[in-house]
Design brief:
With about 375 residues, this protein is α/β, with parallel strands linked by helices. It is built from 13 helices and 12 strands.
């Protein structure tokens, strides 16, 4: 399903500056949340509780970026009077529903939820709505009567990955075989990544095998890649569309274990530290950098604006529209993304403070860093 309003469809963004450059001011809001000229009879003051439900810990972003940034931003927007009540479901949909119910019982003021299972969470969202608690879907589009959605432009992520892979294969790509290693079917984002990628790959490559990876688990991805190698032949695989960096690591491991002499182009997403290092070394072709600070900051702004009744700020933050299987025209913000390759590591993850040179250029990667001008 295309969850975007096609009139608002974004084009692929070239890296002209840091992805962090998009700010609330750019949305037309002067002075941000709390500007006296836009105050709209808040239903709550600064003493608010924001419930934050994140899906898992396997991907390092949630504990390292999302939670601490949202917590810091909520405190900043409420003069340190507001707080974030945090729970992580550790990839367990039933556990997340229990956590959401607890937040409803505890009467938090607003809930940000990154769903483990977008459909399974719908009943919990309905209960929150019945209790008068707004729910904002964060990063993944939850079903049910959500009030807003913030994420990256997920189909664009897939388009960027697909386009970069085709480019890496060269002018005669149409005869070359690739493997698709997609995400989990329970994650609506995975379907969007896949759809975007196929729009770029169709008729430009031969998709020899395609797999959906249960739970986004790299162990499952490695097993699927081993099957693909056996079925297609190691030397016949010209490239791999991998939906994220965790899967990319497993794919590359399987290829190396099978004895590949040179790793073919493998895509990724999330700009995880080990993926950045693989890109520098040449084992992984590219990733997609998504500015978690930008997404998390905007999510906190949306949550506070919603619960305080600041409709002007909220509307400015949600100028896009998306559809879910259960609801139409959901107010949304779709954050842009950047293709991450060797030549723009300094201008993305280093410039935005995601990693330091010291973190990237460990002993095994010092030569690769030096060769790419990272010192």
């Amino acid at each position: 399903m295309n969850t975007r309003n096609t009139r608002l469809r974004r084009t692929v963004i070239s890296l002209a500056s840091s992805a962090m450059a998009v700010t609330l001011a750019g949305c037309g809001v002067v002075d941000g949340i709390g500007g006296s000229d836009t105050k709209a009879s808040p239903t709550k003051g600064d003493d608010i509780e924001v419930g934050l439900l994140l899906p898992e810990k396997e991907n390092t972003r949630y504990e390292k970026f999302d939670y601490p940034i949202i917590k810091e931003q909520v405190e900043k927007l409420t003069s340190n009077k507001g707080k974030v009540v945090y729970a992580n479901a550790e990839q367990d949909a039933a556990k997340q529903n229990t956590q959401l119910q607890q937040m409803v019982d505890d009467k938090v003021d607003v809930i940000l939820v990154d769903a483990v299972d977008s459909q399974a969470i719908a009943s919990g969202v309905q209960k929150a709505k019945a209790a008068g608690i707004p729910v904002i879907a964060y990063d993944r589009l939850a079903q049910g009567p959500i009030d807003a959605y913030i994420s990256f432009d997920n189909e664009l992520v897939g388009e960027v990955q697909g386009k970069e892979l085709v480019g890496a294969l060269g002018s005669n790509s149409a005869s070359k075989k690739i493997i698709m290693m997609n995400g989990a079917t329970t994650d609506p984002n995975a379907a969007q990544f896949k759809s975007g990628a196929i729009s770029e790959l169709k008729d430009k490559v031969v998709i020899a095998k395609s797999y959906d990876t249960k739970d986004w688990n790299p162990v499952n991805a490695k097993a699927n890649m081993e099957k693909a190698i056996a079925a297609v032949g190691l030397n016949n695989i010209a490239g791999v569309y991998s939906a994220n960096d965790g899967l990319a690591g497993a794919v590359i491991d399987a290829l190396k274990t099978a004895g590949v002499s040179t790793v073919p182009p493998v895509t990724g997403q999330d700009a995880e530290l080990d993926a950045v290092q693989r890109i520098l070394k040449g084992d992984q072709f590219m990733s997609v950098y998504k500015s978690y600070p930008q997404e998390a900051t905007a999510a906190a702004e949306m949550a506070v604006a919603k619960v305080q009744g600041r409709s002007i700020e909220f509307d400015a933050l949600t100028r896009d529209k998306v559809d879910s299987p259960s609801n139409k025209d959901i107010p949304a913000q779709l954050v842009p993304v950047v293709a991450l390759k060797k030549d723009n590591i300094k201008d993305t993850v280093l410039q935005d403070g995601i990693y330091t040179v010291k973190q990237i250029c460990t002993a095994g990667y010092k030569a690769a860093c030096s060769a790419n001008g990272i010192k």
